[in-house]
């Protein structure tokens, strides 16, 4: 499970940043599974479901509540807040570019976006629905969803399977291409400032890109240990090791404190940082990562350069139209 | 305060529905106050603020949480839910066409949309901010808002006054014209079905339009008593009289159980009904209103006709683009 250095990073380390092949531009299309080919109708339905608070027990929490598509794809909170103001244990990861994760959730417990979409809806501390039968029954009680599911999947198609497929199809459209970094790598040498280029060289040189590799800087789904180094001061301050990560799912001691590598794209928009949202600023997040992963102390200038580079990973967000959610029927009780 | 019959209704009562002057088409533009002329920049900023959950103490509740612009302008809940899962005492009124209300809130305690917008933000059970100074400080900490306020109002313009003006300017764009009713009144006699026309005649004949008068069927801001008749059975079932309405604000006994007349536009989308959201279906709401306001028992057919007509008051909802909310700064703690 533990991949030491990717070829990409090795190249970046030996060459300069002008070694174009070492840096990847974000694709503008996400791969889609054979059993969930996209369609306009599916994406539109998925957008509706994604933004519909009626997928929660109280009718107040939608997917977008914690993974806000009007913001950086999450909620800018340390821990997300579900129904009845309950707190989750981790900081919501961004939905933007999540189509490029090989696994989903901080602990990678879902293999696909489809599988991921099913989880929070029935999590007691997130959207709080008792089970998917109740979700399906509620969707069936809303006339407009009967029509929208029919358009996307055919007649009488409302089910957990189709609902999560539609949500995943929508999420595959949430891609933010053309960041200054992408433009730079694509050949526009003025797209990054001198400081940002220094930062780019520094993240390769330090080895950040050992884990944060690939087009989405997310290690293409590999798990990594965090923290690598148990720093007493930082641990006392941020409690990184309280949460056992992958081991909570696998129940194996060797998986303790392993995590899916999160993307660095749009990271300037997604404070606070790390799995428990304990680090408020990007400066501090960079310093913490250098210390507990690489055992490096960064100078003020090095930190500033890296943060400048990370700001260059903010992409272009597609303009979206708001979905019109079908009305709760005034004919029947919900 | 109590207006017995408007000219509009009197005309409707003596004539048939073909007396066109008795029925008003919804204007496509809302009146705006002299001190808050609209602009593209103001509306765009208002749309951002309206949808930004960071205007609440927890960062989880926006204006749109209870007045959802993707739905019928409210939350389809009996009582709205604010920060920390606290319940409000009343059912959220729709934001659509609220620009045509002469007063705002169920008890009319705000004279303007601007004044209304300031309220929920610092209500402990709604958005829970301690005071507007804190709201302004938070907005100032977000770089993108500095820019957006400057575009709309000029340099260093972030304040309670400008924020509420922007929200009100946005809300004045939330108009739903061209309902089947509007088309019918405008001359398209095929826009309503025979049943809907029967329902239209019935609401005039019964006197529903005594209070639900004018283009928005909201009595143009007049207050009315509800319930007029104390029906023991319905009171025991729905507890209408528990809430004293306007008297809670005015502290005058003669204002007890007076309420702003709510709009009937898009009513098919805004279940459940009445100030306390106690009535789940439109059929039942129609029967209840006939009984406690007019002392009439409706036949099944009469109810069905009226409900059919009310469904004809669903307008066209403008397609909106989602606002892109400026990022919480990762430079400073929020």
Notes on the protein architecture:
Chain A has 334 residues and is mostly helical. Chain A folds into two domains: 7-28 and 176-311, Orthogonal Bundle (Cytochrome Bc1 Complex, Chain D, domain 2); 40-171, Cytochrome Bc1 Complex, Chain D, domain 2 (Orthogonal Bundle), CATH 1.10.760.10. Chain A is 37% helix and 2% strand. Chain A has 14 helices and two strands, in the order ααααααααααβααβαα. Chain A has helices at residues 7-14, 40-50, 63-66, 113-121, 132-140, 143-153, 160-171, 180-185, 194-206, 208-211, 232-238, 247-250, 282-294, 300-311; strands at 223-225, 258-260. Chain A has a two-stranded antiparallel sheet with strand order 1-2. In chain A, helix 9 (194-206) packs across helix 14 (300-311). Chains A and B meet through helix 13 of A and helix 13 of B.
Give the helices and strands, then pairings:
The structure is a homodimer of 334-residue chains.
Chain A: H1 7-14, H2 40-50, H3 63-66, H4 113-121, H5 132-140, H6 143-153, H7 160-171, H8 180-185, H9 194-206, H10 208-211, E1 223-225, H11 232-238, H12 247-250, E2 258-260, H13 282-294, H14 300-311
Antiparallel strand pairs in A: 1-2
Helix pairs in contact in A: 2-6, 2-7, 4-7, 9-14, 13-14
Task: Offer a few descriptive terms.
homodimer; 334 residues; mainly alpha; Cytochrome Bc1 Complex, Chain D, domain 2; 2 domains; two-stranded antiparallel sheet; 14 helices; 2 strands; 2% strand; disordered N terminus
């Amino acid at each position: 499970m533990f991949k030491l250095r990717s070829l990409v990073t090795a190249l970046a380390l030996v060459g300069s940043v002008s070694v174009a092949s070492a840096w990847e531009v974000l694709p503008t299309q996400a791969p889609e599974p054979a059993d969930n080919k996209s369609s306009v109708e599916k994406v539109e339905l998925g957008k509706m479901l994604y933004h519909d608070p009626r997928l929660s027990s109280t009718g107040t929490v939608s997917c977008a509540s914690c993974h806000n598509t009007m913001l950086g794809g999450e909620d800018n909170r340390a821990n997300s807040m579900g129904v009845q103001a309950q707190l989750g244990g981790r900081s919501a990861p961004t939905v933007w570019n999540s189509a490029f994760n090989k696994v989903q959730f901080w602990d990678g417990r879902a293999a696909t976006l489809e599988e991921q979409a099913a989880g929070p809806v029935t999590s007691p501390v997130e959207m709080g629905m008792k089970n998917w039968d109740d979700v399906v029954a509620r969707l069936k009680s809303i006339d407009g969803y009967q029509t929208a599911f029919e358009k996307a999947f055919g007649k009488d198609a409302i089910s957990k399977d189709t609902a999560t497929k539609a949500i995943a199809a929508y999420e595959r459209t949430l891609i933010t291409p053309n960041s200054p970094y992408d433009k730079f790598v694509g050949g526009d040498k003025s797209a990054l400032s001198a400081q940002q280029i220094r930062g780019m060289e520094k993240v390769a040189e330090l080895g950040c890109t050992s884990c944060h590799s690939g087009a989405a800087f997310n290690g293409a789904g590999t798990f990594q240990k965090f923290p690598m180094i148990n720093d007493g001061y930082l641990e006392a301050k941020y409690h990184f090791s309280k949460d056992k990560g992958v081991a909570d799912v696998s129940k194996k001691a060797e998986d303790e404190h392993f995590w899916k590598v999160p993307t660095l794209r749009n990271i300037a928009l997604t404070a606070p940082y790390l799995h428990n949202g304990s680090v408020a600023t990007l400066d501090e997040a960079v310093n913490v990562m250098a210390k507990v992963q690489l055992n490096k102390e960064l100078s003020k200038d090095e930190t500033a350069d890296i943060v400048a580079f990370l700001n260059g990973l903010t992409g272009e967000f597609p303009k979206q139209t708001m979905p019109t959610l079908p009305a709760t029927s005034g004919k029947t009780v919900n």
